[in-house]
Amino acid sequence: MKKHWWHKATIYQIYPKSFKDSNGDGIGDLKGITSKLDYLQKLGITAIWLSPVYQSPMDDNGYDISDYQAIADIFGDMSDMDELLAQANQRGIKIIMDLVVNHTSDEHAWFVEAREHPDSDARDYYIWRDQPNDLDSIFGGSAWQYDDKSGQYYLHFFSKKQPDLNWENAALRQKVYDMMNWWIDKGIDGFRMDVIDMIGKIPDQKIANNGPKLHDYLKEMHQATLAGKDLLTVGETWGATPEIAKKYSSPAEEELSMVFQFEHIGLQHKPNSPKWDYEKGLNVPALKDIFNKWQTELELGQGWNSLFWNNHDLPRVLSIWGDTGTYREKSAKALAIALHLMRGTPYIYQGEEIGMTNYPFKDLGELNDIESLNFAAESLENGRAISEIMDSIRMIGRDNARTPMQWDADANAGFSSSPQTWLPVNPNHTQINVEVALADPDSIFYTYQKLIKLRKENDWLVDADFELQETTDKVFAYKRVTADASYLVVINLSGEAQPFDLDIDYQETIITNTCEFEVFEKLQLQPWDAFCVKVG
Questions:
Q1: Fewer Cβ atoms within 10 Å of its own Cβ: the N or the C terminal residue of the chain?
Q2: Distance between CA 84 and CA 75 in Å, rounded?
Q3: Model's pTM, two decimal places?
Q4: In sequence order, what are the beta bridge partners of 278?
Q5: DSSP 494
């Protein structure tokens, strides 16, 4: 199998509105990101996944794009983008752009033309019908919006200000490829592809994901933009199975480098229930089964995994599956060790490396996320108590990931000099922040730094087979096995002591989150103990 730089990479996701504000308007921006590149270089990351900074009315915080080749005013301008690229390159950090081509903003010139002139070529860039069917929007309500000007309904699987693009139109596809090549020529190193499994939708058949033409489109995209270039491409694919993931990420298929699959994230929700009906606690046996399936069925050379706990659409993993009290730091390290030593490319979401947590939202007035606000409005109409609504939002809502990055203990956590930030700063920033983390050699930050360094320096993290070990329910243990060596990873994913039988020929400790670690034939794992040892 040909090795690429991204096999040994660790990617850091930045949500620009919340990372660092350079001009005091309460909103993060490109100059703010550039000012923190030395911090990211110290962490050791290979690349930044930059959530959208394109021109946008910000109905969905930049995932509603009105111009793919311009920068939103709140983030700066194209010269700031060029400077970020240049400064990142000087530090050996690559930039991965968020590519949102399932839909645009309704303020994009294409949609404006389509609405104003129904006989124009742009009309067919979107999906119009005389009568809607019963497809639902992911953000609530119907997926169809009536347009008074042209007398038809247009499809929007997200906000009504995010009309879906019609990928059956070849001219539209070519415009997308031209735009992608424009960014590649600027020097970016790849794309994270937002809900890319939806571009093959067939709304009349009620097919939203994994439509029959999806892989044809991705192969065409690859040939038009990616062929012959060593770029990272990762697709957001909520409905992927290992077999589907092979179609996306097998080198022979020439589509994408890897995909984000969300089967493990599904454990946050009650089975066969809406997103907002969350599970209390982690089903560790189910998590082990899911990881084992993806690690063993997506075999090396046939596809590639992405590894993640957090992103801009998900709650903070510490708050939903870790321990935000006594064992906050230890559980954060345990979750990191569990994830980063599997086969795949790890992704870190901003603040994960210092153990940031969910925000204690008091009321709807503190929220910004359109999905959460729509959920609240619909739930109130259906008679649900506001206390129950807020409980769900505090646990699952997307704004939990979007509160400002916590740089220090000063006002607004060092994120902004403005007295008013676009989302409130978590009050725990006085204890949880970068300044504190960097000053403590035993902090979560340095565990992440070591895990990133291990991946860069050790081929076994790419090549070794994955073998799940039999354990008690709350213990996740696996071996990474090569022809020459084996590495045992053991994590107690609970706040209670757990037994673990250790039948190994111990050679050395690779990483651990406990200073009391010793090797015995039978271990009594303490709460959130985690370690990796080289074994015979």
A1: C
A2: 12
A3: 0.96
A4: 269
A5: S
